[in-house]
Amino acid sequence: MTSPARQLPGAEPATDALHQALRQLAQPVQALTARAQRAAAGQEPLLDALLREIGETVLPREITLCIGQTPAAVLTAAHRRLAGLSLGGTAEAGDAPEDPAAAARLFAARLNRLEAAAAGTGVTFRRRPCAAPQGAGSCTAAQLQEALAAAGRSPLSSFRSAAAPQALAWIHCGPGSQAPDTGGPEPLLNQLQAVRSTFAASAARPGSARMPARKPDCLLLPVSPDVRILAASHEEELLLLALPPAAVPGMIETWNSLFS
């Protein structure tokens, strides 16, 4: 009779991912079948089922998600990472930013649209082997889950969070008459405040365009060789960022991932 496995003295404990995989392998077939049946009957949240699919996929796989009998999305996953997500029945890999957090935000926005379309209808997954994704931005299931949780915030708040590590200063004007949130050295804040005042004066002139714009808008102002000001607006919010020039391309890429 085979004895149960034991932890050897001095050996490192198994990782959470390994424990999870071993528990998954130890489940009886009936449990796995019942789980798939619950998802197909609409008794399990779509996002929970999808995150589990990603977390359990090691070898490259193209996963077609069907709502009822209709293909609704195609995912490309490998090494427990999501590398592509297209709505509809055709796979499209390689369109996500290389930064995992930015890729997660892009995928999360698509998943929210997918969840709204499902509206509690049962889902099934069809898997088939595919080539390993090359040069595609990807994220883990945990990063995707975090982006989904953050999606409850306004898109401009998410953009500010992404910019925070590189921003030299910022002014974030939320909706309504609440005081703006600011950060950074006073000289840069003064520059940002001057830009904000210019926008406010422009909006106050008769016949002027209203600021901030109702639709997403992003404007780059090269105020000096060492500082760029990025002015982003969405609905009732305005975000002004002072950035080093090297940070600008990444911020534009993040903006496009959130608002494209």
Report on the structure:
The chain is α+β, with helices and mostly antiparallel strands. It is elongated. The termini are far apart. The strands form two sheets. It has a five-stranded antiparallel beta sheet with strand order 4-1-2-3-5. The protein has helices spanning 16-26, 29-40, 46-55, 100-118, 141-150, 155-163, 186-204, 248-259, and strands spanning 61-67, 70-78, 81-87, 123-129, 139-140, 169-173, 181-183, 217-221, 228-234, 237-243. The chain is built from eight helices and ten strands.
Alpha-carbon distance between the two ends: 60 Å
Which structural class do the helices and strands define? alpha+beta
Query: How many beta-strand runs?
Result: 10
Into which percentage range does the β-strand content fall? 15-25%
Question: Helix-strand pattern, N to C?
Answer: HHHEEEHEEHHEEHEEEH
Main beta-sheet annotation: 5 strands, antiparallel
Side by side, the strands of the main sheet go: 4-1-2-3-5
User: What is the average of the pLDDT values?
Assistant: 78
Alpha carbon gyration radius = 23 Å
Helix content: 25-40%
Instruction: Give the overall form.
Output: elongated
Low-confidence stretches: 1-14, 208-213
Number of helices: 8
